[in-house]
Amino acid sequence: MGSLRDNLYKIAQMNWKNKLNLLLCIASDLQIIHSHKLVHRDLHSGNILQDNLYSAYIADLGLAIQSNIASEMGSEDIYGILPYIAPEIFDKKSYVTASDIYSFGMIMWEILYGKLVYCDREFDNQLQIEICRKNLRPTIIKNTPQCYINLMKECWEKCPEDRPTAEEIYNIFTKWKDDEKILLELSESEQVLKDVLNTHDSTYIESNYRSRSLQIIFSRLSIIRISNLGKRRADKF
């Protein structure tokens, strides 16, 4: 059935037990990848494949790398799709398993709302600056399930050490699947989510969602920093 990206609109209409089962599949694969001390480094909805709507598996491990090797690599090795890349990577920090967790948080948002993250934005220097310097994160619509939102926000934490592990996420979804109180909280949001699906524009610029080298983007951002620093110094005198 193609990728998760291809099926987001249909997935967003599924009941919560099926959504949780889908999220469990993805979290399970990510847990396995991390248990082998690997970092995926290019996790996004286009790299999650589906045989049916209710299950999925993480694909395209071409950029996966041992975490100890990733720790020795610098910012010149940035490759992927801008919104899914953890902000610390643009600050010349190493890829770690928590960098994949940030990407997983973006996938959670897409499954919740049935559209691609930042589909209404240009993937340019300005977006990069807002994510890295102003802590921009995707918009959360009022009255969507708080337990889900809280976990998603934990995945988006600026500090990698504050994000949950893939194993913790897997255990949370496993618990939620059999917790009637949580299922009730999730189901109470279904009408709100249906309204979102009925009103949003699902069009997007396809070329934005292709993995690419982001070395040039980062270099230009560095030039902006230097220019601003020079301007501040000139203004001072």
UniProtKB/TrEMBL annotation:
The keyword Transferase applies. The keyword Amino-acid biosynthesis does not apply. One of its GO terms (molecular function) is ATP binding. Residues 1-177 form the Protein kinase domain. Keywords: Kinase, Transferase. Pfam families: PK_Tyr_Ser-Thr (PF07714). Signal peptide: none annotated. PROSITE patterns: PROTEIN_KINASE_DOM. It comes from the Eukaryota. This is Kinase-like domain-containing protein. The lineage of its organism: Eukaryota, Fungi, Fungi incertae sedis, Mucoromycota, Glomeromycotina.
